[in-house]
Amino acid sequence: MVNLSDDEAPRVLLNPEIVERSPELEVDTEACLSLPGLEAEVARAAWVRVRAQDEGGRDVLLELEGLDARLLQHEVDHLDGILFIDHLPTRERRELLRRYREVRESSAPGSSSRERGGSRPAL
Q1: What are the residues whose beta carbons fall under 8 Å from the beta carbon of 29, sequence distance 6 or more?
Q2: Can you give the pLDDT at residue 117?
Q3: Could you tell me how far CA 103 lies from the centroid of its own chain?
Q4: Which of 49, 65, 112, 117 is the most buried (most CB within 10 A)?
Q5: pLDDT of amino acid 120
Q6: Cβ pair 48, 13 in contact under 8 A
């Protein structure tokens, strides 16, 4: 289910498949609830053509551009097991994941500076 910018209510798209992408790319900041706190600049196709079925099983073909195209590419990536960080150069992806792990470890229950060898509890 996606909520496209021109829709009043979320739209159900079953088995979405991107069947065509523009050769032109647009770069914008992306984030994801799967990796809270991370964001990065990601290049995506400026427009896409998507084939799917609606909630009644009817075939639909959509042409999306701009933010709607970016949103759909991001969500279809999830269905294919791809996260936005997988579109980044290896070095940038590794650095983001290193910082992500550090933040998660420092905010884990029971992690205070005393337990990590410091003299005072973390605030």
Answers
A1: 39, 40, 41, 42
A2: 46
A3: 19
A4: 49
A5: 38
A6: no
Q: How many CA atoms are closer than 13 Å to the CA of 84, on its beta-carbon side?
A: 24
User: Which pLDDT score is estimated for 40?
Assistant: 97
Largest CA distance in the chain: 64
Q: What is the CATH number of the domain that holds 71?
A: 3.90.45.10
Please give the angle made by the CA atoms of 15, 63 and 75, to the nearest 5 degrees: 40
Backbone angles phi, psi at 11, to 5 degrees: -105, 135
pLDDT (mean) for 103-112: 78
Domain that holds residue 96: 14-106
Is the residue at 118 inside a domain? no
Write out the H or E segment, with its range, that includes residue 45.
strand 39-45
Q: Residue 77: inside a domain, yes or no? A: yes
117 is a domain residue: no
Q: What is the DSSP letter of 109?
A: T
Tally the domains of the chain.
1
Write out the catalytic residue numbers.
75
Which tokens belong to 37? 């706190």
